[in-house]
Amino acid sequence: MRVSGPSRGKLTDNVSGYVAEAVARQLRHQLLGADLLRYQEEHGEFTEEELTQARSRIFGAAGLDGSAGSA
């Protein structure tokens, strides 16, 4: 099957958008990681209580068992 005309452009736009979002997500992840490391260097490691609060805020009740944040 050969794709041409407007359909081909739409497919390219969809793939380009997907790739751009994936790259942006990876950059945000890396920047957040760097910020968290910098914070810990200045203020010490996060306590279990702080980690539990963070998981709860990010993942809701599902994050309280610790499994959601281990990926």
Number of strands: 0
- Arithmetic mean of pLDDT: 82
What distance separates the N and C termini?
40 Å
What is the H/E order? HH
List the total number of helices.
2
**Are there runs of 5+ residues with pLDDT below 50, and where?**
none
Beta fraction = under 5%
Helix content: over 70%
Major sheet: none
Question: What do these coordinates show?
Answer:
- The chain is mostly helical and 71 residues long.
- The chain has two helices and no strands.
- The longest helix is centred in the middle third of the chain and has 38 residues.
In short:
This protein has about 70 residues and is mainly alpha-helical. It has helices spanning about 5-45, 50-60.
List keywords for this structure.
71 residues; 0% strand; 70% helix; mainly alpha; single chain
Blueprint of the fold:
Elements lengths: L5 H38 L4 H12 L12
